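Minutes, project check-in
Item: structure for the 86-residue chain
Input as provided by the requester:
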Amino acid sequence: MTTYWCHNSKTGEIFSYQSCGELTNFSRGTYMAYGDYLTTGLESRKEAEEWAKEWVACHKCKATRHIEKDGKCQFCGSELRRVPIS
């Protein structure tokens, strides 16, 4: 069994889940609710925290986007805002 970490860019939540081959205890409800806001497969909490510093939610695109120097989404031009990591 392997432990992975997930970052939810919409809520700022970082949490772990376990996977063994094709099986996982990742919450289907979380996946269905947040979809493209989730980044999975991170190998440690530290890696997830570093990821969260660079990748934030674009509420217009409903996806995770890399925060550029101008603070805008590179696809739609919306203002990107970080949420506190929890």
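Outcome recorded: The first strand starts at residue 2 and ends at 8.
No further action items on this chain.
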